[in-house]
Amino acid sequence: MLSAVLRNLVSNAIKYTFDKGTVSISAQAAPDQKDQIWVVVEDNGVGMDASALDSLFLVDKNTSKDGTHAEKGTGLGLILCKELIEKQGQKIWVESKLFNPDTNEASGSKFYFSLSLA
Fold first, then answer.
1. Which one is predicted more confidently, 3 or 72?
2. SS3 for 8?
3. pTM of the model
4. Over the Cα atoms of the chain, what is R_g?
5. What is the pLDDT of residue 63?
6. What CA–CA distance (Å, rounded) separates 81 from 78?
7. 96 φ, ψ to 5°?
8. Are the beta carbons of 57 and 78 closer than 8 angstroms?
């Protein structure tokens, strides 16, 4: 399960990150849960707007968009990730921002999922 989730999240991060961009995987202690860790897959890619974030994990919404090199996707990978994580009684969530040309603020996404240590 963990392998499938990580493979999909890293694959998506690579797909939506520009050439010479960065993708990182890390783990951290969950702030309020001593028996959990959070795994984070982070990129400095294209990012997502609020409407894309709202429908990202929904089966009835197709949120798939082409990657930075026109790679195609089905939109089902993240739904599968959500199902696998929730079957373990855990959570998956995302933070993302689009590039802001007015402030030159960077874009990118951070996908988190929790894992039980017990």
1. 3
2. helix
3. 0.90
4. 14
5. 67
6. 5
7. -155, 155
8. yes
